[in-house]
């Protein structure tokens, strides 16, 4: 394993590459750069980076295509940089296997946090017990308790919770959650998912009206809030 | 009668004959014409002469048949009255020549009276039948002429491109159908105004204008009263175009005693409906054209907005990213990196300022306001675009080769933006140096950006040649649609071609005559 993790930055704007280069090096990563989709795929094969940061507005192919081709060969985490008018492309990229997205413009802290979330599960594989903010989730025993008090969840609610909390800090699209919990026949039943998220929030959140654990990514999906303390 | 097989409106049609009028109301008892009388007398004289000469050889009953034949011919050819007269003449001649006592007109035998009656009956029947036949032929010809006129009008109306043409065509036909003046009036301001008249220079009287006004306001035909009554001499018909009032057409009163009056009235009615339909079609075509223009403007706006948001976002993302990097990772950043980030922030802030300036310019375009054309040195605009491109991509080799160029009518900002977009495209997609040239090609000024790249994908090049701004194939980017929009706004076009080993994108703009 490399000493420093290698990040592939794919963006056709030299100015973005420029500041990302400085920032990522200072944050302790190695970087390589690509300015087009073709170049990105070639670099990914040759360098085997630990993570790819992919801008959706590439000149030669759209982000969806890059991810599709990438996924044929490699399974590295991908964070998508998206603009407001690329909402559909962003969701498709996430459904196709991009791990997360950061809307442009972004502060470097936000991007670094997303990168850490995407890189982390690959280091600490298979968490059995998730403990966060007084909440204890035992994935093997299918038990959830808050401050020692057992919470009653239906099996589906628990599956949904496990899918979210197991990917803490990462966005889970509606489609991905529906597929994981209800199966491929239900990938479009977003209203259904919304009802279950509501129920989970009622049971888990201290204030269901202002959720702190299950965060909504409007139009995209949900994200389990990661407590930076517990994962450092 | 017009024998040309005519449908297509050609200039020869101007001489189209209107349905011919029979000279009299009662065709089958038509008054004899001098020619007819003369012809009949001549024929009768010939027969009498021949019969007189052949008296020795021909028996009486054969001679009388000769006379009867002449009477029948006269009746058929010249009508009822001539036939009757011929019959009387024939009887007299026969009596004079053949009946005892010879060379007197005295009828002594009773059966001679029967002969007279038979002659008269045959002559009148023949005259009447022939007259009626002729009348039917005339009527059929008249109907055919009317139909031909209608089909001609409808062919002409199908080819019109403007309302004035419709009026002109219909007036010509109304003028012929009514055999009198025809006028067209159109609503203008708060009243009707004469827009055309045939014969030219014909001016309707005040009472006629009043009648037209009534027709217009009530939305129904205002017919001229019968001859001899007080009132206007013209009938007026208001036309409806898409439910709203159109022009009012008027034609001279039809002579009431004509047998084909009904036919003419119906023909006029059909022609007016055709005119209405032609006007309707024109108004629909106009609406469709307006809609097309509006959609094109909308497309331009959408493309401009998309490009603009891209151009604004990149510097914003750079500035925000660099600032947060300096703030959050400042401690760990080497001094070189810090300096470079600060430089990036400065550059991008300047870029942003320029874009905001563009935004203000383009907001005007977005609002659909036409470009503010002034005299512009295209070379200067190209140089400015190149300078900007050099600042944006310091590593790119961009050569400006614009010599002395004529001034053109354009908006400098738009011109610079479009050249910049082309250079930006070349920088992004082509390796090697980029040349920006300015030349004159005929009556066009050509600003071209040449690179050593693969050129546009065929789909994009194909799209450039098309009319619309949307539907750009994936990968066309946003710069090209804007260029195309700007080229069109400036009255020019954007073309793509191969040039040696590279691609050539050219902005071709018209050179005004004054500058050439």
Can you describe what's shown?
- The complex is a heterodimer of chains A (232) and B (516).
- Chain A is built from nine helices and twelve strands.
- In chain A, the strands form three sheets. Chain A has a five-stranded parallel beta sheet with strand order 2-1-3-4-5, with helices on both faces.
- Helices cover 41% and strands 22% of the residues of chain A.
- Chain B is of the alpha+beta class and 516 residues long.
- Chain B folds into three domains: 32-144, no CATH class; 159-286, GAF domain (Beta-Lactamase); 371-510, Heat Shock Protein 90 (2-Layer Sandwich), CATH 3.30.565.
- Helices cover 56% and strands 15% of the residues of chain B.
- Chain B has twelve helices and eleven strands.
- Chain B has helices at residues 34-53, 60-78, 80-98, 110-158, 163-178, 206-218, 261-329, 335-366, 378-392, 412-429, 458-465, 479-489, and strands at residues 182-188, 191-198, 234-241, 244-252, 374-377, 398-402, 407-410, 434-441, 444-451, 493-499, 502-510.
- In chain B, α5 packs antiparallel against α7 (261-329).
- The two termini of chain B are 57 Å apart.
- Mean pLDDT of chain B is 80; it is low at 1-26.
- The interface between A and B is medium-sized, with 30 and 32 residues.
- Chain A: Residues 6-119 form the Response regulatory domain.
- Chain A: The modification 4-aspartylphosphate is found at residue 55.
- Chain A: InterPro entries: CheY-like_superfamily, OmpR/PhoB-type_DNA-bd, Sig_transdc_resp-reg_receiver, WalR-like, WH-like_DNA-bd_sf.
